[in-house]
Design brief:
heterodimer; A: mainly alpha; 2 domains; 9 helices; elongated; B: alpha/beta; four-stranded antiparallel β-sheet; 25% strand
Chain lengths: 261, 244
């Protein structure tokens, strides 16, 4: 019992320490966002690395998700009502409100989040971060602010693209396998999907982008122990980001529903 | 001048620096020696606040770097220092030119058009030519150290801190780095602090040598006096190093 309490206490202290250092890192990011000239070239470079380089993977994920959603909904409604009904509506609702933001965030967390943690972690264990201090540059200013900016800029944009591509994937299956004309499919989409629904999904991506940036940068900055440590930090960052996307999704969705969005 | 007063630093229960005090005069080439794990790197990292000391004072030209919480003041004091890291710590994503000119952008108001001339000049000072476009991964260990030193001196610091400058280098490279360190003092007149476990190097180049043991300096004197020290830790370290 004593041992168990000891371990729980140790875990609690560790968690408190992690949250504390994450809060300090965030404070530093906010401070340097306003107190220094923006590193435009670094921001552009990171936006390409995080956003543009993730585009193909998110597009493929979303396209096939849209296709499989249309196929399953079409078959289900055909079994129930003898014809595929509201396929465009269901696909667009699922993608725009949930699957678009969540799947895109998971893909970005796995791809770009891993890159960010590995890169910062390697810089940490090879003393490159210390070198930044000695050369008059705060790492928050040079490394973290551009990455936060890049995540917050590109993830919402990627999600919008993913929504369109997913809906197009649904349309392809609808017209080729379910005999739904494209005009009817898009009529289903546009009749029922409102601006509020689009905003519901869009707003969520900012929470996800912020969380992925926090986790991947924090894990990178606190990497210890050489190459093995970089691998460990990267794995932890990816797993934690993916789980937190799903956890955060529920709470943010509840909050948005509560405020009428 | 750098003046360290009662500097303490602990990691958990381990007291690495335990009330350390020393004065480093301008123009000094001050070497800190001691076996691995005695806290030499911790000492040099505290000097520039890469590590936060638990207590004590570090006065750099009269300004206390140990206790300041002001980011801008800290950055201003750090500007006086160049730091040569053990493995060079060159930025992987940048080529040699970008590495050497990095500090110029953040620490000086020198126009960008001047960067190529300054980079060429500093690289020549460490014996390198036509390497500006190479990436750190394309350089040998010795070249990395020299590029790292060129990066440190590009902003013309008043003090240079060397962290284990000869570790992992062959005898030829070690000789080259030794000459480089003395050149920096002779040509640029900088004050140097060298942390090393290479006693021969320390005795060869330094104006003063300090031996770290138990979180303090147990001996701090000119090389000739250091060799005659009666301190048992110094005697033992010299015996192991093959000096006696």
């Amino acid at each position: 019992m004593k041992k168990l309490l000891g371990r729980l206490g140790h875990l609690f202290i560790e968690l408190a320490g992690t949250l504390g250092s994450a809060a300090i890192m965030f404070k530093s990011v906010v401070f340097w966002s306003f107190m220094s000239k923006p590193e435009m070239s670094e921001m552009a470079k990171q936006s390409v690395k995080i956003g543009v380089d993730s585009f193909v993977v998110t597009a493929l994920t979303s396209f096939f998700t849209g296709m499989v959603l249309a196929l399953q909904m079409g078959q289900t409604t055909r079994n129930l009502f003898n014809e595929p009904l509201y396929v465009g509506t269901i696909v667009s609702f699922a993608l725009v409100k949930e699957l678009g933001p969540v799947l895109t965030s998971i893909v970005v967390a796995g791809r770009a989040g891993a890159v960010v943690t590995a890169e910062i972690g390697t810089m940490r264990v090879t003393e490159q971060i210390d070198a930044l201090y000695t050369l008059g540059t705060n790492p928050s200013r040079y490394l973290l602010v551009p990455r936060f900016f890049a995540f917050l800029l590109t993830l919402p944009l990627l999600t919008i693209f993913a929504d369109f591509i997913g809906i197009a994937g649904g349309c392809l299956v609808g017209s080729s396998q379910l005999s739904i004309p494209a005009a009817i499919y898009f009529d289903d989409v546009l009749t029922y999907l409102s601006f509020k629904d689009v905003m519901h999904g869009y707003v969520k991506t900012y929470f996800f982008a912020f969380m992925i940036a926090m986790v991947s940068c924090h894990k990178g900055m606190n990497t210890k122990g050489g190459a093995e440590g970089v691998g460990k930090a990267t794995t932890e960052a990816v797993v934690l980001s993916m789980v937190l996307v799903l956890v955060l999704d529920y709470f943010v969705s509840s909050m948005l529903v509560a405020v009428g969005l | 001048m750098i003046e360290v007063k009662n500097l303490c630093k602990a990691f958990g229960e381990r007291h690495i620096l335990d009330g350390m005090s020393v004065k480093i005069q301008e123009g000094d080439l001050f070497s800190v020696i001691g076996p691995s794990g005695t806290g030499k790197s911790t000492f040099i990292k505290c000097l520039i606040r890469l590590l936060d000391p638990d207590s004590g004072e570090i006065l750099v030209d009269g300004e206390d770097i140990a206790s300041t919480k002001d980011e801008f003041r800290l950055a201003r004091i750090r500007r006086k220092f160049g730091y040569l890291f053990q493995e060079g710590a060159l930025f992987d994503s940048m080529n040699v030119f970008e590495n050497v000119s990095f500090g110029l952008k953040y620490l000086t108001d020198i126009p960008k058009s001047e960067y190529p001339r300054i980079v060429r000049e500093k690289l020549a000072l460490v014996g390198l030519k036509d390497v500006e476009k190479l990436k750190p991964s394309e350089l040998s260990g010795g070249m990395k150290k020299r590029v790292a030193l060129a990066r440190s001196i590009a902003v013309e610091p008043k003090y240079i801190l060397y962290d284990e400058p000869t570790t992992g280098l062959d005898p030829v490279m070690t000789g080259m780095v030794r000459d480089m360190i003395t050149d920096m003092r002779d040509k640029l007149g900088v004050t140097s602090v060298v942390v090393t476990h290479d006693l021969k190097l320390a005795l060869n180049i330094s104006s003063r040598v300090a031996m770290m043991y138990g979180g303090r300096f147990v001996e701090c004197s000119a090389p000739e006096d250091f060799k005659k020290s009666a301190n048992p830790e110094v005697q033992e370290f010299m015996r192991i190093s093959g000096i006696k």
